[in-house]
Design brief:
Structural class: alpha/beta
Largest sheet: 7 strands, parallel
Distance between the termini: 14 Å
CATH topology of the largest domain: TIM Barrel
């Protein structure tokens, strides 16, 4: 693969509805899109999941723009790339910055799949032709709103409901949900809102027969999660704590979790995602693909990785219309009775809507490869 240029575009999109978690509320999203062009005329696309403030992790849109332009893209000048796995090897000298690395690497994976006339899912080793879809429900102004929204989601066919929780918004709301919907697949996402001082409180979650509680403790912890998991019947799912294969290996060996949520941007790209997937397969750890309020390009990459066999639980890759009045791809990601079909076309299987992307673009930079 001979890359001729890499184009960065920062776009701004309004969310269809505000989304609130224990760390804040998002009403719109700035997104960096990466387009990798080859001398053959093909384009591969990636999307950074970084947000404007360092509240999910230490990265932001501005730091991603800097890291891509000043450190990561120059590493691709060295020689041609024969396989996307080589990208993560070149990026190893740069510590962290997983969102920035993933956006570029995903674009090159898309380009590679297109140049080989393969669906990205097939290039990654995927085995599914459709995936189950779950949905995430943010913290809201009233319990009644939550119950109404869940009912609407279930009527739409979603296979799993995820509720955001935090101290003061947990036991009571989960009890109400379980009373009205006693048999639904239900999980709780804490986004690091608790500590080990809350063990007795968190043990009360066992009564609700949840699929899992996601990341109840600190964003960088695997030790205390092991202590907590030993006290809970409810499986712990780790999210923010897992950035690499090594993080996943240590968490599994320590017993810090029984489930892993994989986010491509959080682990630095698709190559590392595959390695973590294979590790979870070996240890029989169920997986699912988390969401970061991606637009269509990031959503398409999530579909591709979820086609791998160990993604056995419904993920957060809801259809485009759940988040956006208009998405940046054609066709938009659509759901049918709780399932999304894996695209069969080359690469991500969706066409970026360049006219709309250009309307949304607030910054653009073209890096010509030497």
């Amino acid at each position: 693969m001979k890359i001729s240029s890499i184009i960065l575009r920062q776009i701004k999109m309004d969310l269809l509805h505000p989304f609130t978690t224990s760390v804040g509320t998002e009403r719109d999203k700035d997104i960096i899109l990466v387009e990798a062009r080859s001398h053959s005329g093909q384009s591969g696309w990636g999307e950074s999941v970084a947000i404007m403030e360092p509240i999910y992790n230490e990265e932001t849109v501005r730091t991603n723009w800097h890291m891509m332009n000043d450190h990561l893209i120059p590493l691709l000048h060295q020689q041609d790339i024969t396989h996307p796995d080589e990208v993560s090897e070149r990026f190893k000298k740069i510590r962290g910055n997983y969102n920035a690395k993933a956006a570029i690497e995903c674009a090159i994976w898309d380009l590679y799949a297109k140049e080989n006339n393969l669906p990205l899912a097939q290039a990654l080793g995927g085995v599914k032709n459709k995936i189950e879809v779950g949905v995430s429900v943010g913290i809201q102004s009233s319990h009644e709103n939550i119950l109404k929204q869940i009912d609407e989601y279930l009527q739409s066919g979603y296979k799993r409901i995820k509720i955001k929780i935090m101290p003061g918004w947990d036991i009571e709301i989960l009890a109400m949900i379980r009373k009205k919907f006693p048999t639904i697949e239900l999980m709780a996402d804490a986004n690091c809102a608790y500590t080990l001082d809350d063990i007795e409180h968190l043990k009360k979650l066992d009564q609700f027969h949840l699929m899992m509680i996601e990341q109840p403790l600190a964003h960088d912890d695997i030790i205390d999660h092991a202590k907590l998991q030993a006290q809970l019947d409810t499986p712990i799912c780790l999210d923010e704590s897992i950035h690499t294969y090594e993080d996943a290996r240590k968490a599994i060996e320590l017993g810090s979790c029984r489930i892993i949520n994989l986010k491509i941007g959080r682990v630095g790209g698709l190559t590392e995602s595959k390695k973590i997937h294979d590790l979870c397969t070996k240890h029989h750890i169920p997986m699912w693909c988390g969401g970061m309020l991606e637009a269509g390009i990031g959503r398409a990459h999530n579909l591709a990785i979820t086609s791998l066999s160990q993604f056995t639980l419904p993920g957060d890759t809801a259809p485009s219309a759940h988040y956006w009045k208009r998405d940046i791809i054609k066709p938009e990601v659509a759901m049918n009775n709780g399932y999304i079909d894996i695209p069969e076309g080359p690469g991500i299987g969706f066409e970026p809507d360049l006219e709309y992307i250009n309307e949304l673009t607030v910054h653009k930079h073209v890096a010509v490869m030497k």
